[in-house]
Structures are given as C-alpha cells and as structure tokens.
Design brief:
The protein is mainly α. It is built from 7 helices and no strands. α1 runs antiparallel to α3 and α4 packs antiparallel against α5. The longest helix has 30 residues. The radius of gyration is 16 Å and the shape is globular. The mean pLDDT is 90.
Length: 174
C-alpha cells in the first residue's frame, strides 16, 4: 500500500464531511461569503458544497490524478478564502467550513488547508490512485489505515473548530 494512502484518504474524507455539512446547512457559509461581498446564495453554496462532497468521494473511489489536483486546488481555495477573511478584518463568526459549526477564520486554518493541499498534490504527483482500491487490496492493513484515517479526520475537524476558537480567545483579566 502506498505510504500516501492514509494522508490522501484523510484529505478526501475531510472534503466529503465538510461538503456534506454545508449541503445540510449552508447558512454560515453563505454569511461568510456575503461578508466578503462574494456570491452567497444558499443554492449556490449547496451546489459548491455538493461538488466538494462528490470530488472527495471520487478521489477516494477513483483516485485519478486530475481528482487529486482538484482536491489540492480546493484546499488552496479554502486557504485563500481564509486569508481574504483575515485581511479584510470582517467580523465573521464562522468561515462556514463545516456548515453550522462556529469556526471563526484563523491562521491555523490556512496552515491546515495548505498542508492538506500538499498531501493532495503529492498524491497526484505520485499517482497513488484510489485509496479504496489500496485498502481493499490489503484488508488487514487497510482496516488499520481506515481506522487511523478516521481518527485523523476527527482530529483535523477538532483542530479547525475547537483549536481555532481556543486560540482566538483572549485570557480573562482579574
């Protein structure tokens, strides 16, 4: 199994999760886009989120190089959005990364997005193919990769949400 299978699976699954959350509830994302004076209708957000979800699923199941390049482009776009939000100084309660979840834009988001883009680029350059195929080819090792990848996605979600909130808080003065 290629060494990039787990990291690539994480990048794709996080894209699936985030897309699904925005399809279900596009309000926070629409608000974040509106705050930056970008097109922000809920149907448009749902369409983009649906594309994100489908792209992640296709990367997992088909794994074509072009899909990994598109995953990388998605994460770089998210990074650029967060940079724009931070530079604009617009008060955003959430960047809308995960639908309703309150995820205020934070420089840590940029770092995570760029790191995930780098993983997807490496998957494209190395032509790792489909993580699903790699997992099914080696069921024992594949089960471990799936378990660790799901744990990593949960930790990434926590880093995007809770860590950003924790780092954004100012200590209370007595």
């Amino acid at each position: 199994m290629p060494a990039l299978t787990g990291p690539a699976l994480c990048a794709a699954l996080l894209l699936v999760f985030a897309g699904a959350m925005k399809v279900v509830d596009p309000a926070m994302t629409a608000g974040a886009l509106r705050a930056l004076r970008l097109p922000s209708s809920k149907p448009l957000v749902r369409a983009g989120a649906g594309s994100e979800l489908v792209l992640g699923m296709l990367a997992v199941t088909a794994g074509w190089q072009v899909l990994w390049w598109l995953v990388a482009a998605s994460y770089l776009t998210f990074a650029a959005f967060v940079v724009a939000a931070l530079r604009a100084g617009t008060m955003l309660g959430s960047c809308g990364c995960f639908g309703r979840e309150d995820t205020p834009p934070h420089p840590g988001h940029v770092v995570l997005n760029v790191a995930l883009a780098a993983v997807a680029m490496a998957a494209a350059v190395r032509d790792v193919g489909s993580p699903l195929d790699a997992i099914l080819d080696e069921p024992g090792e594949g089960a471990v990769v799936v378990g660790l990848s799901l744990l990593a996605v949960a930790l990434l979600y926590t880093a995007y949400t809770d860590l950003a909130r924790a780092l954004g808080r100012r200590p209370q003065r007595s």
